[in-house]
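Bug report (template v2)

What were you trying to do?
Predict the complex of my protein with oxa(dethia)-CoA.

What happened?
Run completed; filing so the output is reviewed.

Input:
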Amino acid sequence: MKSVEIISMGRYVPERIVTNNDLAKIVDTSDEWITTRTGIKERRIAADEEKTSDMAIKASQEAIIRGQFDPQEIDLIIVATTTADSAFPAMACLVQQAIGAKKAATFDIAAACSGFLYALTTAKQFLVSGMYKNALVVAADKMSKVMDWNDRATCVLFGDGAAAYLIQTTDKPNVGIVSDFMLGLGEYSDYMQIIAEEIKPLEQKNIMVRNPYVVMKGPELFKVAVNSMAEAVDIAAKKAGITLDQIACVIPHQANDRIIQAVAKKLGAPKEKVFVNIEKYGNMSAASVAIALYEAVESGAVKKGDYVALVVFGAGLVSAANIIKW
Ligand code: UT7
């Protein structure tokens, strides 16, 4: 069977840095609470006019330049997002237009914080089947636009960002994305939602619509997250035919450092094998694990030939894991 390798990557985060102390000026919170309960110190927040697609395009452009890749060779573009500029067109079409990938098929995937791995695994199937040779997989979320900025329990947790990966088939056996696991847990769908609210004072003609925003059952989500991520890595490792101690680096979804440490403990993974960048960005939903992989490679935490475990969970609930031989 053909293998699928990552051949290039790109990343983008907005310029504006918002610290915990900045947030303490708008909601009743503190740097001490946010740091000890989540590990987050700051996050990037996009400018009002900066759209999710702008971030997706910048990350994609970097992946193309770094890979010195001709966009005309891209057969498929999948964007993982739950904060698209609008319900349609698909963000993948906007990326296609911006990078000039005229021959690509384009669609989006909505799997919340698990979106990047859902998109990666989906794209991989098109490549393994022989239908396509090259795909661009993008994860982009502007969580700041779906925050309730009066709710201290959610608004301190999230940030904005994007990352993009070019993937390609190769005849080399057992390299690249060596195993995949995805699972839906629909019974927990009310643990995290984006809700839209209509306020109807007296008469229909006075309807006021509030922007959709995130609501979350944090402590409940915490427990399912730990169990489902640990289980996902275990299953993906077994599917890859490797033991947990052969994994050089675990890169988990960056929702809460306490969740990450609990997953690491369940897996028996020492601290130095677990990549964490949550302190700089908070939770960027689909983009979190995608940016973390980029930074793990750039920092030398992931080296050529290493087995890497990517693992995520998110609203749905949905979880996923991939083992990659880098
Ligand atoms: O990608 C998936 C996204 N979401 C998650 O993964 C979230 C998973 N859950 C979590 O990360 C944690 O549950 C949270 C960080 C959301 C909350 O931490 P916690 O330790 O579970 O706190 P809690 O919700 O049990 O709240 C403890 C206290 C409460 O006060 P009382 O009732 O004990 O007086 C909250 O009102 O902390 C209060 N609190 C805050 N205090 C200061 C909640 N948010 C804040 C805040 N600043 N920002």
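What did the reviewer find?
The longest helix spans residues 218-240. The CA atoms of residues 34 and 65 lie 37 Å apart.
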